Each structure stands twice: as C-alpha cells, then as structure tokens.
Amino acid sequence: MAALEISFLQGQLEERKQRLEQAIALAPPSGGQTGGLAALLREVDSALERMDKGTYGLCEECHEPVEQDRLMADPLVCYCLDHLTQHQRAALQRDLDLAGAVQRNLLPQANLRVNDWETCYHYAPHGPVSGDYCDLIPFDGQLFFVLGDVSGKGVAASMLMTQLMPCSAA
Q1: Main-chain dihedrals φ then ψ at residue 141, nearest 5 degrees
Q2: What are the residue boundaries of the structural domains of the chain, listed by start?
Q3: For 111-168, what is each residue's pLDDT tens digit?
Q4: H or E element: which one contains 142?
Q5: Residues 47-98: pLDDT tens digits?
Q6: Closest Cα partner for 117 from 127, 129, 126, 108?
C-alpha cells in the first residue's frame, strides 16, 4: 500500500481515536454504551499499532495483503477475504448489496426526454459497485451528459463517485 494512503488512513484512525476517547470521557458511567466504545477504541489502537510495526494491511491469518479497497472503506480490517468467517462474509455481502442498490438509485432517470432528445443508457458495473459515473441533467431546456470514471475499483471508488453528483441531482 502506498505511503500516501497509509498516511491518510493513519490520520483517519488517530482522529477516530480522539473522538472515541472524548465520547467515552463524556459518557455517563452507568450509560452502558462505554463497553462498545471501548471495544472500538481497542480496534483502532490495534490498527495504529500494526501501522507502527509495519504489519498494517497484512492479513493476521496468512500475512498476505488485505484488499486495498476494503482497507480504504474500513481501516480496521485485519483479515483478507479468504479468512473471513461465514458471518463476516454474509455481512460483507449484505453491505455490498446495499451499496449496489444505493448506487443504482443514484443513476439518472431512465428514458428521459428533454425537447427533441430521448435518452437511453445501459449501466453495467464490473462488480457490485464501481467508480463509474454517469448522469443526465436537464437544465433550462437543454440536456447535459456527464460521464466520469474514478480511478480504482470497488467500494472506495464508488463512495468517491457519489461525491461527484451535482447539488441539483443529489
């Protein structure tokens, strides 16, 4: 994994650690939610420790690299896809299905007509989600076609793609 990405993720984790520590400090002692926050804080600390040791991004089971798009989407990931439990695989599949549904709902209206223009498109991502972007924006009697491709694949690229939507379309 590139040093720039590690640096970015380390900053994200350190920020998350500060927020968790603040939330734990502010939580009422009898609130019952501090246990979950403390467990999450231990995961963040563990990821930061792996960064310090130089083992961040390696599967704790086989020591092969964890999929980069998974790390970008969740910097706490510490197992490659091959070493997830059945429950973790099912949860990941549900998340991917939901992300795919959200992405499909962001696509432009099918068979849009604006003045003399009639549109039709076919969107086929390589996987459940992608970094491809397309939009059709009717404005002031005109129709604008917008196409884009975020570098990368998977969830991280698709999350970036959602940020490209014009305010009027979101």
Answers
A1: 80, 0
A2: 3-84, 103-162
A3: 888 888 888 888 887 777 887 888 888 888 888 888 888 776 666 677 777 776 665 4
A4: strand 142-149
A5: 999 999 999 999 999 999 998 878 887 889 999 999 999 998 898 889 888 8
A6: 108
Alpha-carbon Rg for the chain, nearest whole angstrom, is 20
Other Cβ atoms within 10 Å of 72 Cβ, number = 21
User: For residue 5, which of 91, 86, 69 has the smallest C-alpha distance?
Assistant: 69
Q: How many other CB atoms are there within 10 angstroms of residue 155's CB atom? A: 25
Quick one: which of 117, 129, 166 has its CA closest to 146? 166
How many C-beta neighbours within 10 Å does residue 69 have? 19
Among residues 122, 92, 89, which one has the least CA distance to residue 104? 122
Are the CB atoms for 69 and 152 separated by under 8 Å?
Answer: yes
CATH 1.10.260.40 fits 3-84, yes or no: no
